[in-house]
Amino acid sequence: MSSFANAGAGAIIRDIAAVIVENRAYLSEIDGKIGDGDHGVNMAKGFGRAAERIGDDASLGEAMATLSDVLMSEIGGSMGPLYGMFFLEMSETIEDLGAIDADTFAAMLRAGLDGVASVGSAKVGDKTMMDALVPAVAAAEAGHPDMAVLLRHVAEAAEAGRDSTEDMVAKIGRSSRLGERSRGVLDAGATSCAMILRGLCDGAAARLDA
Ligand code: ADP
Ligand code: MG
Q1: d(CA 13, CA 97)
Q2: Pocket test for ligand 1, best of 128, 175, 186 (most atoms within 8 A of CB)
Q3: Which of 46, 101, 121, 179 is most buried (CB neighbours < 10 A)?
Q4: Which one, of 52, 53, 46, 56, lies nearest residue 87 by Cα?
Q5: Dist. CA 137 → ligand 2 center (Å)
Q6: SS3 (DSSP) at 100
Q7: pTM of the model
Q8: 84 Cα to the center of ligand 2, angstroms
């Protein structure tokens, strides 16, 4: 079974942080249409600070733990505790592993999803990050004999889930106050979540050993 080394893969988190920082204005712009317009600012602050603290030799588990600490203790908004728990649960799942294969990758994402659900209680269809995350975890758990294909399926499921939020009415969080008027724009958290999962999957795929 193919896998990638945990050691040194902390660079994946730095690459994700770079994407988030690049998309700071875009994420705030979409949050601004139905929320308070701070999602990109919150995300770029947290991911940017974490990236500065992740060393070249950090494992993926260590880098996720560092990111989680920053998000939970230094970042406000809904996102701090939600993504903080996401990365904490994922880091704990892989911290003792030398290599991450398709099964442990799926278990890692499942733990992250369960962590977010325990904090936020949002369901698919509520127009949140869950609309990207839940189908991505389902794709990971569906499995595929070729891990590179599996990783592609996970990222594509997250992006399709993100796109599905455009036609939804928000049922939870700040934008739910708008009711029907929240329809017609992407959810900011689903958009950042799809970026994170795309980065995680592409980073893992680039490091596969077989
Ligand atoms: P705030 O809503 O406090 O301004 P952010 O702008 O950083 O925080 O994040 C907004 C995003 O958080 C939303 O787009 C949505 O995807 C996500 N979100 C809000 N509440 C929840 C929840 N209970 N569960 C999952 N995601 C949520
Ligand atoms: Mg906001």
Answers
A1: 17
A2: 128
A3: 46
A4: 46
A5: 25
A6: strand
A7: 0.98
A8: 16
Q: Do β-strands 99-101 and 3-5 pair in parallel, antiparallel, or remain unpaired?
A: antiparallel
Ligand nearest to the CA of 77: 1
Residue nearest ligand 1's atom 27 by CA: 128
Burial of 41 (0-12, 13-18, 19+ CB in 10 A): middle
Residues with CB under 6 A from ligand 1: 31, 35-36, 38-39, 42, 77-79, 82, 120, 122, 128-130, 172-174, 187-190
Q: Is 199 helix (H, G, I), strand (E, B) or coil?
A: helix
C-alpha 188 to ligand 1 mean position (Å): 8
pLDDT digits over 59-111, tens only?
999 999 999 999 999 997 789 999 999 999 999 999 999 999 999 999 999 99
Q: What is the pLDDT of residues 191-200, one digit of tens each?
A: 999 999 999 9
User: Which residue from 5, 22, 3, 65 is spatially nearest to 199, judged by alpha carbons?
Assistant: 22
Exposed, middle or buried by CB within 10 Å (0-12, 13-18, 19+), for 119?
middle
Place of tokens 């049922």: 171
